[in-house]
Design a protein that fits this description.
The chain is about 50% helix and about 15% strand. It has about 270 residues and is of the alpha+beta class. The protein has a five-stranded antiparallel β-sheet. Strands 6-7 form a two-stranded antiparallel sheet. It starts with a strand and ends with a helix. The structure holds a DNA duplex (13 and 12 nucleotides).
Length: about 270
DNA sequence: TTCCAGGTCGTTT
DNA sequence: AAACGACATGGA
């Protein structure tokens, strides 16, 4: 295995945060499927060990986990009060992973009214059905599909009503179109995403945050809504619009990092 | 059995 | 603009 020196990074917190769905832990190692590659990872203190089913560089890993970012500066910018401070302490070292935009879009369309476990199951089924086999480390994996099937085939992967969403969304935007959103202003890119079937404000914000580098994005799911209302609005019922405006204004341009800490801390 | 899950859609106030 | 029920599926 190759080694990378890391600072202010927790592989465990990052991979177990629920931002990615294609990761398994066994025999003391994480197996993380990224596009057409399988990464095997292990962290011991400030050393990150890795191997891969294909040849990759250390900079691939650094870019994937955002290790070049000034973590302390990010934390400082969002650390506004006692509550978020506790949330940061609990999951310190978590990083926002730079996902492939297409995979991210597909995964989060599958997330609507589902559970993290449910999304994993759906994405795994899609990959087994439409992806390619990867034999690595004596185990079989499946790459994330480049193309998906018709609605009937999608339903056979257990997507339920999301099959229609996904089919329409991917027929209205391709990888190129997705990547081009990254050059637009945040609000504009978000509006374009929401135009797609099955993508509302929450899924759009996840795609923007987890795959297109929009760190100001603050996805509001049922958990974030609950914890924000409870801890920042005296337990009152508040519209997502108000919560969202507050969060971006309060936490600043790295509100997305605040969101991911708060999500990990949602039971409090 | 009933309830809930990283929401969104279409319809109705 | 805001509120509301439906929507497939699987796990607890």
């Amino acid at each position: 295995m190759q080694k990378i020196k890391v600072k202010n990074f927790s592989l465990k917190h990052t991979l177990e945060s629920g931002q990615v769905f294609r990761v398994e832990f066994y025999d003391e190692h994480y197996y993380f499927i990224v596009g057409d590659k399988v990464l095997k990872l292990k962290q011991e203190k400030n050393i990150l060990y890795f191997s891969c089913s294909k040849k990759i560089s250390k900079s691939f890993i650094r870019n994937l986990f955002g290790l070049e970012e000034n973590y302390k500066a990010i934390i400082k910018s969002i650390n506004k009060d006692k509550f978020i401070s506790s949330a940061i302490k609990k999951s310190y070292g978590i990083r926002i992973i730079r996902q492939d935009p297409f995979e991210c879009l597909v995964s989060y369309i599958c997330s609507s009214n589902s559970s993290v476990k449910g999304v994993k199951r759906q994405v795994d089924n899609l990959s087994r059905r439409f992806g390619k086999k990867i034999l690595f480390d004596g185990k079989m994996f499946w790459s994330f599909p480049e193309n998906l099937g018709n609605i009937k085939e999608l339903k056979s992967c257990g997507l339920g009503f999301r099959a229609n969403y996904l089919h329409q969304a991917v027929s209205d935007i391709d990888r190129k179109g997705l990547v081009s959103l990254g050059k637009m202003p945040y609000e504009e890119a978000r509006t374009e995403l929401i135009r797609l079937k099955g993508i509302g404000p929450k899924v759009a914000d996840c795609v923007l945050l987890y795959s297109l580098d929009f760190m100001q994005s603050f996805p509001i799911d049922r958990w974030i809504k609950r914890t924000m209302q409870k801890n920042y609005f005296c337990s009152k019922t508040i519209s997502n619009r108000i919560i969202e405006d507050f969060a971006r204004n309060y936490f600043g341009c790295y509100a997305g990092y605040a969101q991911i800490f708060l999500y990990q801390f949602r039971k409090f």
